[in-house]
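hey so i finally got around to running both of the ones u sent me last week. sorry it took forever, my laptop kept dying halfway thru and i had to restart like 3 times lol. anyway pasting them below in the order u listed, first the sequence line then the structure token line for each. didnt double check formatting much so if smth looks off just lmk and ill redo it

first one:
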Amino acid sequence: MEFTHIAHVEKKVSRIGLGTWAIGGWMWGGTDEQIALNALLKGFDMGITLVDTAPVYGFGKSEELVGKAVKLFGKREQIVIATKVGLSWQNKTISRNSSRKRILQEIEDSLTRLQVDYIDLYQVHWPDLTTPFSETASALKELLDAGKIHAIGVSNFTPQQMDEFRKFAPLHANQPPFNLFEREAERTVLSYCLEHQIATLGYGSLCRGLLSGKIQKETHFQGDDVRKIDPKFQEPRFADYLTCVERLKNWAMKKHQRSLLSLAVRWSLDKGINTALWGVRKPEQLHDMNEVWGWKLSQSDFQEIDQILSDTIEAPVGAGFMSPP
């Protein structure tokens, strides 16, 4: 395992974190609680110390499962719990709300669901342009000063938005979407965060399973699965992405004797992300994790990978489809 650091978090932060959107069930066709708990515990046993969740993931379900897993693991002092704030829901209709009132309500709800008395990293889930950043940032600084949170983060913020936020509170982390297929943050957010010593957590490292190499043309997604609205999983783009996946899979094995999945995570880490979030629902999905360690991608590797993407994906599309109103 490789480790990194988040300012104000006095724990070792693993460079792979457990992503828990899927275990909440909502937009993933449901969940099996016991299997989800087993997956989280396996991750902790393998040395992962950071787990990322949010109230909106299953409307509280994901946070509850994370809380149960940390209790079962029994080593709270080792686990970095990162959760979020600033989305409200009514009848499963999501909207942004980062008002002070909403934040002070959400922190208490999250502490209860997680069964903890502090949160290591508290992140604004999406920028709320209807609430002044001064109000949002000041509310989070109140929680920081009170010891209810140990570090302040944001997610999906641009450099300009981070600049405004930092006028009113310290900023310790930013969480953008980041993977081989969704790399808009590479030229802007990553360089900004590096310059200002802000840690980065990249979400969607496996691009909702597309970079696992296990999704086929015949794969069908059930219920409210988010991939039913992701443009990458719709034709004609889907065929292009599957072709690219196969090319990357063959390249990784021939060049480095590694799986596609380990290549995808290694790519994010070597591009400069502090921690790559690995979404898990089942323990077996972590089997390839140890293949991530002990090697690095060279500049020529990056160039060859870029060429594969350029050759196979005619109309690339980012993560913007997930943006809530």
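and the second one:
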Amino acid sequence: MLAIGAHPDDVEIGCGATLALLASQGRSVGILHLTAGEAGTRGTPERRREEATAAAAALGVSELAFLDCGDGGLRQGRQEEDWVIEVLRSWRPELVLGPPPRDRHPDHGRAHDLVRDAFFYAGLGKRLPDTAGSPHRSSALFSYMGHDPLPPTFIVDVTSTWEQKRSALQAYESQLHQPGAEELLTPATKISSPEFLLALEGRDRHAGMLIGATYGESFVSAGPLSVTSPWHLVSGDLR
């Protein structure tokens, strides 16, 4: 499976524990960052790449890549679509997790549109016929939760891997609050405050409460979900 985010730390914040859960179940998990966060208030692209690499290791992710789609006004043109198509055809994931359709950061909505379009175009044989491998259409594309709340289509019980998510977030020393190292996070931003991490934990605890778990991560599907039996909805497969 493949998780895609506009900036390093987006994926980890939105669905990091789910990635760790899938990796623990023997699934091959990849992360694609569409930018290196080069327009961020703090941190260099080089440092954010290093942090993203450490975060991926904490989650058990086996593949990690970066594109240059332009932080702070993320581009959605033909070239950017082709880059994402090439990754989809090379890695050939059955499941893709992408950014929410709208969010506080405009790049997240732009990234959603880019991923949605490339997800479709990757399956067309006449799109990039000679340069990007054979067509591939993943089975499902779901959106993880960003800053703004959305009604979830389903929630994953991530109680067993939430501490791995915490470890991955701690790798982003230039971006997120680090207890005892507050001097590193100047100037202050919304996500550098201790309140942000508390709110993130509270969000995942609330999602967990909705399904009878300690922690949960929420996802949105653009279309209906298919199950082979209604019993799957009460057996723990899709709670």
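quick thing i noticed on the 2nd:
Residues 194-210 form the longest helix (17 residues).
anyway thats it, ttyl
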